[in-house]
Design a protein that fits this description.
By secondary structure, this protein is mainly alpha-helical. About 70% of the residues lie in helices and about 0% in strands. The protein contains 18 helices and 2 strands. The chain starts with a helix and ends with a helix.
């Protein structure tokens, strides 16, 4: 189901991304800023358990992006007299610190907790027992197909991610199931549906990145860093200037799905038996060394190593306080383009910010951002009421 979901999402990306790019090329600065605004709000409100903390994480990402020189006036912003900060914060060491060191620090904090390693079954009999027959998989096919399209649709929307796709697919599958009472108790359909959905997100999540320059996921934000290192400008013009790169990405995605299926089928037991048993006192030093080398090698600047360490502690603190690191990094990536299009829009306008409300497409995206906050708040409120009701019933 994971491979089918991945393949469906990748095919839909290949079919639809050119159409989206053609539309994106016709958008002016006001429309593009409205898209950025909607992305900020959607990412901040949807990612994580708290709307306020999500929006705060996004706002913090914008503030960090503003460190350095003003792109128009070249005046220093938030440099505090430091020459190193005049060039701004580099994306690569920031991401390494937030996602790698931050996670390592969080794991080290919990190292006193003992975890039990479950031994995977071994032997020919166990391997046969872990393979599904066609008769067992056949009832799952409608759920896999439906969930693949659900995941692909959610993947196009920046910030929603695989977790939401899995929950939506599970709920929809359970609603349509012949025996919904078996879901949550080991029903194969209940496993196949969310797995197909969360894997179908991967391909379509690249669509906003390739067409609008907006990373739709954490992986998208990392790819932005890769593109910038190689001097590649992302956005709708990517299809005009580097079309060979785009189609290479599509081919790599399809090849990756094939390898993923083979490795998952033949190598899952190997991964469970050997790789996951690497002791942490060996794993963490290797991660630290690799992170330091990568941060320094990105620009050959020791200051980037300091940025990485500071970002690592910031990432650990964000996890501890239940803020969202992904919302922070994605907003950091988007902030530069948002500021540029905002300034361009004001230069085009004779009435200031009213230009965003007099252009229909721009207004539609602004309303989309507001609607995202409203529906997310209503969803969280409903979940809170249901949780309270469950507690009262148990009491």
């Amino acid at each position: 189901s994971s491979v089918i979901g991945d393949f469906t999402g990748e095919v839909l990306l290949i079919i639809g991304v050119g159409f989206i790019a053609a539309i994106a090329l016709k958008l002016g600065p006001p429309e593009l800023f409205a898209v950025y605004f909607a992305a900020f709000v959607v990412i901040g409100s949807v990612i994580g358990k708290s709307i306020l903390k999500g929006l705060a994480s996004a706002a913090l990402g914008v503030l960090v992006q503003m460190i350095g020189l003003d792109p128009i006036s070249s005046e220093e912003r938030f440099t505090f007299g430091s020459f190193d900060l005049t060039n701004g914060i580099s994306l690569v060491p920031l991401m390494i610190g937030i996602f790698v060191l931050g996670e390592v620090f969080a794991q080290l904090e919990q190292r006193h907790r003992k975890t039990e390693i479950l031994e995977p079954p071994s032997g020919d009999e166990a391997r046969l027992r872990n393979r599904l027959t066609l008769a067992e998989y056949k009832p799952c096919i409608p759920h896999v197909v439906r969930s693949s399209f659900i995941g692909a649709f959610i993947g196009v929307l920046p910030g929603l991610g695989s977790a939401i796709a899995a929950f939506v697919a599970y709920g929809e599958g359970k609603r349509r199931a012949k025996n919904p009472q078996q879901w949550g108790k080991g029903a194969l359909e209940g496993i196949a549906a969310p797995e197909a959905a969360n894997n179908a997100v991967s391909g379509p999540s690249m669509a906003p990145l390739l067409t609008l320059g907006i990373p739709g996921s954490t992986i998208g934000a990392i790819l932005v860093g890769v593109f910038l290192i190689h001097g590649i400008q992302i956005g709708p013009t990517l299809f005009l200037t580097s079309s060979d790169l785009v189609y290479s990405l599509f081919a790599a995605g399809l090849l990756g799905i094939a390898l993923y299926g083979l490795i998952g089928y033949f190598g899952a037991s190997f991964v469970g038996r050997f790789i996951l048993r690497v002791p942490t006192n060996v794993l963490y030093p290797v991660i630290f060394l690799t992170a330091f080398v990568a941060a320094y090698a990105s620009r050959g600047n020791l200051f980037d190593v300091y940025v990485m360490v500071a970002a690592g502690f910031a990432g650990w603190l964000m996890r501890k306080l239940d803020f969202n690191p992904a919302a922070f990094v994605i907003s950091f990536v988007l902030a530069g383009g948002a500021e540029e299009t905002f300034r361009q829009s004001l230069l085009l306008s004779d009435h200031g910010v009213l230009i965003f409300f007099t252009r229909p497409v721009a207004l539609a995206f602004l309303l989309l951002g507001v609607a995202a906050v409203f529906f997310r708040a209503r969803s969280l409120s409903r979940q809170t009421r249901e949780a309270r009701r469950a507690v009262l019933e148990d009491a």
